[in-house]
Each structure stands twice: as structure tokens, then as C-alpha cells.
Amino acid sequence: MAEETQKPEAAAAPAPTEEVVVEKESEQEDAPEKPADAVVEDKPAEAVEEEPKVEAKDTKVTEAASFKEETNIAGELPDPQKKALDELKQLIQEALNKHEFTPPPAKDKDKPAPEEKKEEDQPATSAAETEVKVETEAPAPVEVKEEEKADPPVEAPAPVEVREEEKADPPIEAPAPETVVETEVVEKVSAADDDGAKTVEAIEESVVAVATPPPAEKPEEEASSSLKPEVVAQSEEKPEEAEVPRPPPQEVSIWGIPLLADERSDVILLKFLRARDFKVKDAFTMIKNTVIWRKEFGVDGLLDEELGNELEKVVFMHGFDKEGHPVCYNVYGEFQNKELYQNTFADEEKRSKFLRWRIQFLEKSIRKLDFSPNGISTIVQVNDLKNSPGPGKRELRQATNQALHLLQDNYPEFVAKQVFINVPWWYLAFNMMISPFLTQRTKSKFVCASPAKSSDILFRYIAPEQVPVQYGGLSRDGEQEFTVADAATEVTIKPATKHSVEFPVTEKSTVVWEVRVVGWDVNYGAEFVPTAEDGYTVIVSKTRKVGPADETVISNSFKTGEPGKIVLTIDNQTTKKKKLVYRSKAKPYSE
């Protein structure tokens, strides 16, 4: 739903916006001698030469009624855009070779695990050493008094060896190391009486002897076995990491199309480039983030999920515009139904389901687009704000904003036109506030229409036979005499005037017609007038008043065996213009 909530501008906006752009261009061209901005200070000469060209291209974009004026054929792109496309392809190829389109969280989780183990092992050994040092130094003054100088050179080596053997195993038996420490302290202290420097050396040697032997002896089965295999495994894995380039490049697709494959891939890449004003690095970052988001969100699996059909009247696809773009209708007034509103937005879980449903709907619609360079790869959005809950509904606003951010970040340049109909006053005021913050390119896509002008605006972009009946068109569900292939005619009836429509009739044929006046409130009648002068006029439908409440399509037929014409009469006695839409066809028959 967020897509449809993008900020619109008034229906007459395109004309003034073009004038504004021209004025800006003239100002910039007339003022080259003004002090340059901070960005232009480095190359003032180049900026003066290049900026007018870029602005000239921007004017073409603003004047474009749809994306068809922006070619998707790589060979027809301007040179700067070709260069940007080539650079983007190179960045993507390098990223595919390095497998950079994989979500990073998985790697982050794997790396800290071995590091933590190593850090845990190191403090364990250091703690053992510090304990030995403390134990050897603390009892020293007590033992000196009991034993004085007990032949240090003879007894010193024996306890050291005993310590090495016992301290390899003693993590479980605490008392053994205590006795060994006491004997050593005596020797070290006695040695200290002779020479202070020698005691320091003896202490250092004993500490080293205690710290180094454990990994060298039998404890390999426990301590060293836990360390050495890791080191060996890591050393063995290093050559494998060096051979990472051997695997084939990563294969990444968006909307069923590989990022680097053929001309369809160029069409997708151009969408990201245009969304970032052909800034290659920004476009690459956007693509990378989109690919990662699609994997994390599970977009491909989302297509097969069953999310219900409760919202099929809220968002639906119906027909095509005059340029062939599929049309998506978003009917906000359906949320006036309190039960539907609560079932959709009551809590975070329901809003999340709505968001997944909206993404699923959009993905299915995109998969039906034609991504060939000459194909239609954009959608027209029609947003009906009649009876819309408005900005006061916090839950709807939260869901809309969340969807808007996702769609803006991950579905660039998929909207050819945003048409807002039945727009209330508060939306027009809101649009005026945010309009200055929108880019010229974005504003050129938006059209707003009040309730009285909604049908006229729709008919400007969509043929009446393609517009749903609830919006003033002739398209209805179910089996009908006419299809979208049968073109309709539009006529504006002036106030206080009578308008006639004639359908020629050939011999032995049945004439079928559909007629509709948007808003009705007119008199309508139909009759058959034969070509022969001595023929009699036949009243097919008596003249009657059709009120606004009877705003339906009138269908009728007449079978005749002689040539003539069907004459429809619409009498508009009001002070307002009326939009008349009709179509007919003759079917021959044989007796």
C-alpha cells in the first residue's frame, strides 16, 4: 500500500513544472560569472560547459508523459548513461565473483566463535601461571624461618621436575601443587640469601618450566588435543581459502531475471541507475541491498504462500492504460469497514501479514511485465481516496510508512504514473506542503483529481472500455456483450444542450449498444428511424429521466430487417458539463 501513498501533485502540475525547469535553466545559463558553489570550485570551466547539457536532458524527462520517452535500449542511451551502465556491470561482475551478494549476518556469526575459544584458552593458561606465582611468593617468608639454606643446588632440580609432572595433571587435584610449591619456595629463598639475582633467575626458570611442559607431555589427549587440532585444521583450511576463486561466480536473479544475462538485465539495471541519478556506486549499493533484503525477507518463497483473499477489493489489477501499462487500483475507502480494518492493522503480527501480502501482490504483478528493451516494464497506479480513513488512523499510517520505505528502497522506477482520484481537501493541503521536497522527476508522475474531475482524469490516461464501471467506465465483471477490444467513444455534453448519437443499421441485422453518462441526471431516449421515406419510426426506449442514483451502464439492442439508424438522445438540462461514453456493434442474422 505504501506505493500508492507517494506524495502527489495537482493535475495541472506538469505544465507549470516544465516552466519552472526552463526558468531555472535560463538563470543558470545567464549567470555563469557568479561565484561557484563549493562543489564546482575545483573545475569551474568544466562545470560551465557540462551543466547546460545535463539540464537539457532533465527537461526531456519532465516533459515525458511516461517512461517510453526514456529508452531502455542500451545502444540508444546517451554516452554518459552508457558509461554508467558499463561501470555498474563491472562492479556487479566483481561482486558476483567474490560472492558479495550473500547476507553478511551468517559470516559474522561464524567468525567470533573460534576467536572466543582462543581467547578463553589464553586467559586459562595465564590464570594458572599467575596462581603459581602468587603461591610461590606468598608462603616464602613463613618457610624461611623453619629451614635455612638446605643445599639448594642438590634439591632444586628434583622438585622442579615433580612440579612439571604434577602440574600437567593437577587441574583436578589441588593439594599436590601446594606441597611442591612450598619446597621450591624454601630453595628459592635460601638461594636469595646468597645472591638476589640468582633467586630471580630461579623463579623465572621455574615458572617457565611449569608453563611450558603441559602441552609437551601426556596432557595432549585433553588440553593439547583441543588446541593443536584446531591449529592444524586452520592451517589445512588456509590453502582452501586461497582457492576460493575456483568456484563459479554467484548467480543472482531479481524478478526471475539474472543480473547479468541479456538485454532484460540492462532494463533492470537502468531502473536502479535512474533511481540514483546514474550515480554508479549508489546504484550498486542499492542493488546489493535489494538482493540481500529479498533473501532475508524470503521473497521467492513468498510467491507460493497462501495469505488469503480478504484484501482483493482493496488492491487489484484491472485493464491497461492507453500506452499499454497495466493498471493497479488501490481503494482506501474499503478500510472504513471496521472488521476489515481490525483484521488487517490491529497488531504488529497482522500488519506484518498485510505487508507480506502487499509485497506478494506486487511481485506477482511485476512477473507479468515485459522486461525486453521495447517492452512495458512499469505500472500505472490509481489511488482512490474516497472515504479514506485519513492520517488519523495510526495503525494504517504505520503500515503504510513501513511499506513505503520497502517499496522505495527495493522496487525502483516501477511506477509510470500515480493518479489520485476523489482526493479530499486535506490531501491537497498535504501535497502542497511536501511538493517542494519532491524531485522534478517524481512530481511529473503524480496527478490529483477532485471527486468531480476523477472520471475525466482517468479517461485522459485510460480508455473508457478499460475503466471499471465504479469509476465511470464500461468495464464490468462477468460475461458481457462487449469486451475491452470494443472501443468506446467519449463526448462532452455542454450544459443545457441536447446531444444525439446515431448508429447506422444494415438490412437484416441486430444492433447492440452500451451508453453511459457519468453522473447521469439527464433525459435519455432511443428510437429507430428507417431509411425509407414511407417507413415508420420505432421507439426503442421511451425518453426518461436517469438520476445520479441510477449511475449504471444502459445496454440495449434492436433487430430490424430494413436499413435505417438507431438514434440516441441525451438531454442535459443541468448547468454542468456531462461526460457521455458509448459503443455499439451490428451483428448480421439470417432467417
UniProtKB/TrEMBL annotation:
Presence of the UniProt keyword Signal in the record: no
InterPro entries associated with the record: CRAL-TRIO_dom (IPR001251), CRAL-TRIO_dom_sf (IPR036865), CRAL/TRIO_N_dom (IPR011074), CRAL/TRIO_N_dom_sf (IPR036273), GOLD_dom (IPR009038), GOLD_dom_sf (IPR036598), PATL (IPR044834), PATL1-6_C_GOLD (IPR056794)
Domain CRAL-TRIO: 304-479
Residue ranges annotated for the GOLD domain, each copy included: 480-586
Subcellular location: Cytoplasm; Membrane
Keyword ATP-binding: no
Stretches for region Disordered: 1-180, 210-249
Keywords of the record: Cell cycle, Cell division, Cytoplasm, Lipid-binding, Membrane, Transport
Stretches with biased composition (Low complexity): 8-19
Principal localisation: cytoplasm
Comp. bias regions, Basic and acidic residues: 21-71, 79-89, 96-121, 143-152, 161-170, 235-244
Pfam families, sorted: CRAL_TRIO, CRAL_TRIO_N, GOLD_PATL1_C
Similarity comment text for this entry: Belongs to the patellin family.
PANTHER family assigned to the protein according to its UniProt record, in alphabetical order: PATELLIN-1, PATELLIN-2
This protein's name: Patellin-3
Organism encoding this protein: Gossypium hirsutum (Upland cotton)
Protein's gene: LOC121212725
